[in-house]
Amino acid sequence: MSGNLYPPQFASSSRHLDQNLSNLHKCSDTRRLLQIHSQIFRLHLHTNPFIASKLIASYSLCLLPSSAAAVFNLVPDPTSHLFNTLIRAFAQNSLPSLSFNTFFRMQLSSVKADSFTYPFLLKSFSGSVHTIELIHAHVIKLGFLTDTFVPNSLIDSYSKAGESEAACKVFDEMPVRDLVSWNSVVAALVRAGDVSDARGVFDQMPERDTVSWNSMLDGYMKVGEMDAAFDLFSRMPVRNVVSWSTMVSGYCNKGDMEMARMLFDKMPVKNVVPWTIMISGYAGKGLDKEASSLMDQMEEAGLELDSGAAVSILTACAHSDLLGLGKRIHHKAKRRKLMFTTQISNALIDMYSKCGDLDEAWNIFEGMEDKDLVSWNSMVHALAMHGYGKKSLELFARMEEEGIIPDSFTFVGVLCACTQVGLIKQARRYFISMQKDYEIVPRIEHYGCLIDILGRGGLLMEAYNLAKSMPLEPNAIIWGSILNACRFHNNVGIAEKIIDELVSLEPSDAGNFGIISNIYAAAGKWDGLAKARLKMKDFDRHKLVGSRRIELNDNAHELAVEDRMHPQADRILRMLNRLGKYVEKLGYAAEVR
DNA sequence: CGTGATGACG
User: Fold this and answer.
1) How many angstroms separate the CA of A447 from the C1' of B8?
2) SS3 of residue A20 by DSSP
3) Domain boundaries, chain A
4) A246 touches strand B (CB under 7 A)
5) pTM for the structure as a whole
6) What is the pLDDT of residues A564-583, one digit of tens each?
7) N or C end of chain A: smaller count of CB under 10 Å?
8) Which residues 432 to 491 of A reach strand B, CB within 7 A?
9) Burial group, residue A89, by CB count within 10 angstroms (0-12, 13-18, 19+)
């Protein structure tokens, strides 16, 4: 900042402000930002476009886009830089319509868009192919493709929207390319799963930096070519945190925790990302002791949980039923005041719901100020999965009343809710309504729900015919749910029709074997049982035992079929007996096992 | 431009 920016009468206070201003554009501490802002306001410097743009950028970082807009509106003559900053602020806070609105205001005023405007605008609409194409056509007309800045971001946007061919086309037609162009197209090919094409481009590159190598590492890791990745990793000239993290992540995803840990321990420098990868890796495999102890070590190393880490670890906890670790993350997030992002709250809702604490999931949901579609979907689904079908449908109704437009995920939850209550007619209605009213093309999950509810209701032939006639290839879950229904309704005929299909999809699944043997045993067809056993060629004895981990009062318990090893096995079995008697009294007929 | 990142059928 130059000194002549301030009116002379404020010269004495300006030095103090100078220091604040130099880092203002990346101030993420809301309280400090408000202090500086009021200081700026007192000095009447808020009308200066340069200072205003720093305030806008900081308000964006503090997740306060409306304050950013307020700052903008007080500047009498906004520059293109100021417009760009606001467009970026809205983009960063996932407010694409406001981003576009600002662009529109820019067009209406006499300020010209520049090569910074379009990349920000594109970021805002990541995922919407149609909008990207519109912006693309627009920048062609304005001649912005002669530089590399705009086309590079077009490559990235197309690629992230799943249009790798369009991304490659932009690259092919570029008159000049820089390193970022090459890197972007390699990343685009990797994202699309074309690792060999990516390698082809990589080999042609006039020069490579660490980013180029890292993209290739990731590509090989994603398709499971660990040796090729490791080979590149050992040959690359410079390895940074991202290179190491990519390797650790790759081995974690493969389930090779030893290799992942070995590389993790060898890393010369670690930031919060590799810690997160390793902790989530352990948590995702259900290794809560390892995950928890790494969590401690991370803090001892002086690193704190950030929002990415919280979301990532919570998701892993939800996947593996790690309520204890999930709660720990919750408390840490609260202490670090990370609670206020929608994404973390959503991850918490799902974690508590999947780990069995529906009440806590509900508390989080009700306490949220800004619920988004994911929040509603998670809660609708949570209620359905916990057996509260009616409450789930009520929540869906409330959602519609509040004007939230449901999506594909919503209707999976809604159809699950119908299953819980046995509402076949309702389920059919929702299945039609989602297509007619919301233009949602049913996915395999929707067919799965509908087929499941038909089967449970005894409409086995209809369920079977729907599986056969639907426009998607049925998967193991679909056949499994019909098979389950066959067992429940003692229907050997339809069961036999689908055994072959199911076994070819999941040859070694113990659950399927159990169901099939139950059906044959119930019908007294012991030769059929033998046949089913033979069909399961790769049958894995260890998988026969279905086990389940639960957490009670912070102790983990492993329960398995035919298991008497648990310290309180007698009490558990007595309780099960009592429950069995209780439900029999209520008219439930126990299955023959 | 590259690493962790919320929701779906048994």
Assistant:
1) 11
2) helix
3) 270-369, 548-586
4) yes
5) 0.85
6) 455 455 555 455 555 555 45
7) C
8) 443-449, 452, 475-478, 480-481, 484
9) buried
